[in-house]
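tool_call: predict_structure(chain=1)
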Amino acid sequence: EALQQAGTRGRAVDQMRTFVRAKVADLHRQGLVLGGIGLGGAEGAVMSAAALMELPLGVPKMVLSPIASGRHLFDPLVGTSDMIVMHTVVDILGLNAIACSVFDNAAAAMAGMVRHGQTALEAPEHSTAVAITMLGNTTTASMAMRGVLAEAGLDGVVFHANGVGGPAMEELIDAGHFVGVVDLTVSELVGNVMGGVHVGGDDRLRSAGERGLPQVVVPGCVEFAVFPPHSIPEHLTDRPRYDHNPEFALVRANLDDMLAIADDLADRINGAKGPIMVVIPTEGFSIPNVPGGEFYDPATDAAFLERFVARLRPDITVVHEPLHVNDPKFGRRVGQHFLDLVHQSEGTTRT
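tool_result:
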């Protein structure tokens, strides 16, 4: 009940973190803890790391997360403890070859890496993997989309679009791990314009196009940048803000930002050599982008879409879906659009 009445996601996560810290401390006092492993995305990693910090120095403790990277401050994951931190590379949403490789090595490290180490992952000769980008704002849709892909015999591999997940995905695309891409969450391009921790860099949204892979691109989370709450630049402090959790605040892009993002996103899409489709969720790009939400600004979003669509190559199909980006119906529609795109292309094998 206390969590339901917390008021914001951030306060609820903070309360959960307090509870789990007390629980782990109590279990240790009872002599029931030999070691601890924490696994999660942003919220799960921060909560589990805080709990594992309750264990004394010398008790093995490890946290695995897609936010465990040089793009993010390590203090929430390590503090002053002897924590072992491992980057999951892909997001925490189902098992796949990449995730299993990381998780197996984590278990081997806790039990004895020498005896149980995982061999290096190599691209399969006949992959069935489809790369997907996701944030907490697009999780529900991503889960629904993976179900559609799974029914077609494809394995959706999800990357946290947090400034590290996207670039990691691009590298693995170049290495030949995927037969296609559903770029549902392009927030890392916003970081390129506004700054923050979700900065994708110049290579973002280029590899699949250069390899000619089928791809569907959605402007999910296209209207905000992500900052630590205490590190928001002064010129952005008067912008609409949404506290996603105690460690990350989302800051709304203004009209000038959105037009720059529209140009950049369109230019990257226009460079694709293979089959590509754009699917637009007309009822909102993120969780707070709904009527009454912190990021609801239909005039700015309309200007973004007008500029974005006008700049796309005329041969690129643009589909407008009257749904919110995180609606499971939207996720299923995007999954089906990807399958249709694959079927319409000349073949589904990698070029």
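agent: Residues 9-116 form a domain with the Rossmann fold fold (CATH 3.40.50.12020). Proceeding to next step.
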